[in-house]
Structures are given as C-alpha cells and as structure tokens.
C-alpha cells in the first residue's frame, strides 16, 4: 500500500519537477537501498602531531561503495541523508562500526591511550531524542575507552536549539567523549555562541590552509585561530595540508596537529592499521 502511494506521489510530482528534485528523489531511493544492502564503508585519515611527526589519531570518513558506480564521496550524498532523516540511521551505523574498529585496534595493542578517533556528527543527529542513549549503548557494548572518542560538529549546530545542543554535549562529555568544531571559520555562528559550547578542539578549515602560503590574509586567519585556541586552552588540527611549505608554516605558527594528503589520504582500516604499526 505504501509503495503504491509512493509511486503515485512520484507520478504526481513529475510534471513540474525540476531535475534537481528528481535527482534528489532518485538518490534517496538508492540510499535506502544502500542502507539495506550495507553498501557503506568507513575510511580513516591519520591526524599527526606536528612536533614529533607521529600519528595522533584518525578521522573516520564515510564512503558509499555503489555496486555500479564504485566508491562515492560523502559530499555527493550526506546532504540527501540529512534532508531525509536517513542520516540518523547511517550516523548511528558509522559510530557503531567505528567503535568496533577502535575496540579491535585497542585489543591488538596498536591504539595508544592518547590517540583520538574522530567521528563526524550531523547537526540533525543531535536532534534525535535517543541520540545520547544510542551513543552510550554503543560505548558500553564495544567497551571502547570513551576518552579516545571525539565528535566533530560544525558551527551550524547552533542554528538548531543551542541550549539543547549544549545539554547533549555535556552528557556526552560526562561519558568522556571530546568535541571538535569542524571547518572552523566557515560557519555562520559568532564566537559568542562558540564560546558557550563545551568544545576541546578547533579544526581549521582547509580553505584557509590551501592559500596560506600565498595569501597573507589566510595566513593571518590561521595564525589568529591558533593563538585564540591556545588562549582558550583548546587543541587545534589544521585540515587539508597538502605541501611541505604549508606544514612548515603551520609549525612556525605553533600549530600542534595536522591532517592532509601530505601525510596520507583517507584509506581503508587495513591501510590505516599499517600507519599505526609504523607509529
Ligand atoms: P570534513 O569532516 O571536513 O572532512 C575532511 C575532508 O577533507 C574529507 O573529505 C577528506 O578526505 C578531505 N581531505 C583530507 N585531506 C585533504 C587534503 O590534503 N586536501 C584536500 N583537498 N582534501 C582533503 P571527504 O572524505 O570527501 O568528506 C567530505 C565531508 O563529508 C566531510 O568533511 C564531512 O563533513 C562529511 N562526512 C564524511 N564522513 C561523514 C560521516 O560519517 N558523517 C557525517 N555526518 N558527515 C561525514
Ligand atoms: Mg570532519
Ligand atoms: Mg573539516
Ligand atoms: Mg567539510
């Protein structure tokens, strides 16, 4: 019955429907199938301590392994998951799968206690009534050290209920989970809001890193973010470091950590494990 209605719905829309909407709907159908058929994969990208050049953790990045199209990057589908509420299902899967992987690396003795595994959390996941409970359940079930977990949120979290977001973050903080602000410097929020969030880390958006060696303004912004973080007692990760020059400049500005193709691109769990073994 539901299916027939869906068909009618699509037929009804078809006449006036823009290509973008039609594409969105097709993608949504394909994503529902991807969830059922377990087509998602997790990639891991190393984070590196700038002082000693060693791995300090990893960011978990989702990929869609499409049966015909191959590996699809998240920018192609995360927004569709977000607008269709499927993000809650997929987000929970990401968190659980990442925790099982972490538990395995801990058991193998290759995950050090001060490493962080960083998981992107969509603002919409925060609005799920059972978000915190779901996270707590997975942490208990997998037995991972919660202090090794870091949730990456964006400044846009404040467009929903700020007080509610703070409350949820506090609860997760109490479990030991850390928070970072992803793509820092590109959102719509003011520092006044950011200040209220219980955050441990700022991730400098890669657009600032990209041009910092040639554009004085970008270098100033990066410099300012690093200094501000230091004064506020926050850790910093520079995103998207691709060249030696960028790394050297970041080092001279006192940036403590970085992530980027220069050290290594995101890879499979096995590929990242090789980096852990070499660390
Ligand atoms: P993000 O969280 O800012 O992740 C960093 C992005 O920069 C990743 O893109 C990564 O592959 C890319 N990157 C890393 N180093 C470099 C570099 O040196 N140069 C350049 N040009 N890019 C670099 P990716 O994997 O395509 O992910 C894109 C975005 O999708 C992420 O941006 C994040 O916002 C979102 N995303 C990824 N996985 C998840 C997830 O599991 N859940 C949610 N909610 N969002 C996710
Ligand atoms: Mg991120
Ligand atoms: Mg980012
Ligand atoms: Mg991003």
Automatic annotation (TrEMBL):
Signal peptide: none annotated. It comes from the Bacteria. Residues 24-279 form the EAL domain. This is cyclic-guanylate-specific phosphodiesterase. It comes from Methylotuvimicrobium buryatense (Methylomicrobium buryatense). The lineage of its organism: Bacteria, Pseudomonadati, Pseudomonadota, Gammaproteobacteria, Methylococcales.
């Amino acid at each position: 019955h539901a299916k027939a209605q869906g068909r009618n719905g699509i037929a009804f829309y078809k006449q006036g429907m823009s290509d973008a909407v039609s594409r969105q709907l097709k993608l949504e159908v394909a994503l529902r199938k991807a969830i059922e058929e377990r087509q998602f994969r997790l990639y891991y990208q190393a984070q590196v301590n700038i002082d000693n050049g060693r791995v300090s953790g990893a960011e978990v990045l989702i990929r869609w392994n499409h049966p015909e199209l191959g590996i699809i990057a998240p920018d192609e589908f995360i927004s569709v998951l977000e607008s269709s509420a499927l993000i809650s299902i997929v987000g929970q899967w990401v968190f659980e799968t990442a925790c099982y992987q972490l538990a395995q690396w801990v058991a193998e003795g290759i995950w050090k206690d001060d490493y962080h595994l960083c998981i992107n959390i969509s603002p919409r996941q925060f609005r799920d009534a059972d978000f915190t409970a779901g996270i707590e359940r997975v942490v208990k079930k997998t037995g991972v050290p919660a202090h090794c977990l870091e949730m990456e949120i964006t400044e846009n979290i404040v467009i929903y209920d700020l007080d509610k977001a703070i409350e949820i973050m506090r609860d997760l903080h109490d479990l030991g989970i850390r928070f970072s602000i992803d793509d820092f410097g590109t959102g719509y929020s003011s520092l006044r809001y950011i200040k209220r969030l219980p955050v441990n880390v700022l991730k400098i958006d890669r657009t600032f890193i990209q041009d910092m060696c040639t554009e004085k303004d970008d270098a100033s912004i990066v410099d300012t973010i690093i200094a501000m973080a230091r004064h506020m007692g926050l850790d910093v990760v520079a995103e998207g470091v691709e060249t030696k020059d960028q790394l050297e400049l970041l080092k001279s500005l006192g940036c403590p950590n970085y992530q980027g193709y220069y050290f290594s691109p995101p890879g499979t769990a096995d590929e990242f494990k090789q980096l852990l073994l070499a660390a």
